[in-house]
Amino acid sequence: MDKRIFGIETEYGCLPPDSDPFLSPDFISVKAKDWVFYREQLGVVDIHYRGRDEPPGNGGFLFNGGRLYIDMGHVEYATPECSDIFDLVATDRAGEVLVQRALEQLGLAETASFFKNNIDHYTGATFGCHENYLVRREVPFSQVLLPAMLPFFVTRQIFAGSGRVGCHTDIFEYGSAEDEGVTYQISQRADHIVTEIYQWIQFSRAIINTRDEPLADWGLYRRLHLLVGDSNMSEYATALKVGTTALILDLIEEQVVPDIELLDPVQAIRDISRDLTFKWEVQLKDGSYTTAAEVQFYYLELAERYLRGRDEECDWVLKEWRFVLDALLHDPMCLIDRVDWVAKKWLLENFMRQEKLDWHDPWVQSLDLEYHNLNPAKGLYFELRDRGTMKTVVDEERVNRAIVTPPQNTRAWSRAQVMRSLTGQKARYVIDWDSIYVEDEKYLNLDDPFLTYEVETQEFIRECQNPQPPEEPFGK
User: Fold this and answer.
1) Confidence class for position 469, pLDDT limits 50, 70, 90
2) How many other C-beta atoms are found inside a 10 Å radius of the C-beta of residue 297?
3) C-beta separation of 384 from 345 below 8 A
4) Quick one: DSSP state of residue 176?
5) Distance CA 398, CA 93 (A)
6) Sequential DSSP letters for 385-446
7) Given 84, 87, 385, 461, which residue has the most CB atoms within 10 angstroms?
8) Residue 81 contacts by C-beta under 8 Å, 6 or more apart in sequence?
9) Angstrom distance (rounded) from CA 371 to CA 195
10) Is residue 226 helix, strand or coil?
11) Looking at the whole model, is its pTM more than 0.90?
């Protein structure tokens, strides 16, 4: 497909005030969600069950076309459907601004924090960053797409990882011996991935989730749902992560199928993350050895051969992809302005030198977390950005616009128009990604995420706002 629909779901961690035991992370997350819907009125809250674990009021759709909701005690934000990577970056950033603004309005910004990260150093918990990509149903999912994409996802962390101090130890059968000496890793999620593919999210974290839930026309599309990626603070890393993935999916749909297979993807993803020599050696299925960078170059060169010149966005991704891979071979630390794990490592090492600390000091773990703090006055990423050290790809005006404005070229536009028309009305409604019901009998089908449904939307809004009077009995 010439364009692709994609989106990101981000689970935000929450650190409550030490001084108030009643302000738990769950409580603060719910209050922030309520503020967005009931005080700022930036969306329409669900008035129906979306599942056994999502009762009415648990969340809702926003006027930017995305969703904000509570998932297992923490606030989660899903971007609207996007077909432009810079729209996606802007709407992803909009979620950060939304929850941080809610915290400020609740008067908790000085004592509590939201974090866009994936780990809790103290409990061993992990928070997800789930990427979603629409793919053609005709592509054999298990036989072609999964094996072709696995080596890409395993090695992508060398530029998409957000970095972490230490390791998580209780999910591997190898014991704690090999965990000794692990000071820093390039990925936060690597230690929490235990299998290649799996259907259910909570029970076994896989590189690729195989649940078949397209949220679109079942006959035409399937949704590729990823559990493997880190949450990125760097706008550049987010754009490159999603852009490169979309290009490889383009290749596969055009029957240009990468032919490379790792011997043990789960072990490889962990080994790459922990290798601070930056050699990132991996073993292929045929027994030979290569490196994560060479695997990425293999995918890049296929994409360059078949996709270069297609459009401006594609060429931007190819150019930046090659730039980053070349830099990783030369000196990964020169990517401080683009790659999260590099920027964080540089910050922490400078701090440890100044304070004469080592990687095992709790202070270093605390600073690891502060890199992801969504409060611009506290977050270490924002300090780098404000100094001009971090490369950005969207401006603040575009981010602010994305808080209330949906992408203009996907069905998110239609959903936003209908929601605005329902504001202030007492009509019963059920809003979902692929359909909208009002008063049970009025129905708007949104099966194709590429369409804006402009005509159908206007007709639907008129029908909802001007209900027809009941017909008089025949013969009266």
Assistant:
1) low
2) 18
3) no
4) S
5) 10
6) HHTT-S--SS-HHHHHHHHH---TTSTHHHHHHHHHHHTT----EEE-SSEEEETTTEEEE-
7) 87
8) 5, 6, 7, 65, 407, 410, 411, 412, 433, 449
9) 29
10) strand
11) yes
Domain spans of the chain, in order of start = 404-465
Tokens of 243: 């852009």
59-63, long-range: CB < 8 A, 24+ apart: 59/33, 60/431, 61/415, 61/419, 61/431, 62/36, 62/98, 63/404, 63/405, 63/406, 63/416, 63/419, 63/420
**149's tokens:** 């994409």
- Per-residue pLDDT of 192-227, as tens digits, reads 888 887 655 555 677 888 888 999 999 999 999 998
Both tokens of 331, joined, read: 């000196």
Q: What element of type H or E holds 241?
A: helix 235-253
Euclidean distance between CA atoms 111 and 9, whole angstroms: 26
Task: Give the model confidence (pLDDT) of 105-132 as tens digits.
Answer: 999 999 999 999 988 877 767 788 999 9
Please give the Cα distance from 166 to 180 (Å, whole number). Answer: 9
Alpha-carbon distances, residue 109 vs 15, 37, 309 (angstroms) = 11, 19, 46
DSSP secondary structure letter of residue 452: -
Query: What angle, 0 to 180 degrees and rounded to 10, lies between the N-to-C axes of helices 312-330 and 235-253?
Result: 110
For residue 291, the surrounding DSSP H or E stretch is: strand 289-291
Active site residues: 71
Q: Which two tokens stand for residue 424?
A: 């202030």
What is the rounded CA–CA span in Å between residue 236 and residue 391? 6
- Which tokens is 469 given? 């009077």
Instruction: State the Cα–Cα distance between residues 282 and 404, nearest whole angstrom.
Output: 45
Measure the CA–CA gap between 55 and 23, rounded to whole angstroms.
Answer: 22
